[in-house]
Amino acid sequence: MQDDRLHYEDFTEGRSFALGPRLVTAEEIIEFAREFDPQPMHLSEEAGKASILGGLSASGWHTSSLFMRLMIDAYVLKAASEGAPGIEFMQWRKPVLAGDTLSGQSIVEEVRLMRSRPHLGIVTFGHELQNQRGETVMKARNAVMIRRRGTSEVPA
């Protein structure tokens, strides 16, 4: 059986994956905020305008969740991914406002084999998301464990 997924060997330094575009609606901002971050600037346009954010804005955690979805759609589900050990950093640089369209890229910054698990490699990505005005709204960096080609079984 052929495994057409992307493997460690396919993630060369400098390779770029396009993220988005993704429209962010007022309804989804409010829905996420009600459930996870019910601060006023995430729940109403008026409160958002009265804040330093300038309008109804997505929680940073909502932006992070949208970013995760964009990565999933761009390459994670197409890869022999084994998960991630964490996020090195995530910065919310500008507010994501209702009506913004997010797009960006994930770039492979570093690749290395795991000594402790030779069937896996570590691929480190740098990420940026921009709004439709070209303003960077989020930056992040993280590593992902990706299976090497031809190593479908976990060693005993």
Number of strands: 5
Largest sheet: 5 strands, antiparallel
Q: Which outline best applies?
A: elongated
Termini separation comes to 22 Å
- Give the oligomeric state of the chains in this entry, treating copies of one chain as homo and distinct chains as hetero: single chain
Describe the structure.
- By secondary structure, this protein is of the alpha+beta class.
- 21% of the residues lie in helices and 33% in strands.
- The protein is built from 3 helices and 5 strands.
- It has helices spanning 26-36, 45-50, 60-74; strands spanning 16-23, 86-92, 101-113, 120-130, 136-147.
- Strands 1-3-4-5-2 form a 5-stranded antiparallel β-sheet.
- A hairpin with a 6-residue loop joins β3 (101-113) and β4.
- The longest helix is centred in the middle third of the chain and has 15 residues, at 60-74.
- The protein is elongated, with a radius of gyration of 18 Å.
- The two termini are 22 Å apart.
Could you name the key traits of this structure?
single chain, 156 residues, alpha+beta, 33% strand
What's the SSE blueprint?
Layout: E1 16-23, H1 26-36, H2 45-50, H3 60-74, E2 86-92, E3 101-113, E4 120-130, E5 136-147
Antiparallel strand pairs: 1-3, 2-5, 3-4, 4-5
Q: Can you summarize this structure?
A:
The chain is of the alpha+beta class. The protein has 3 helices and 5 strands.
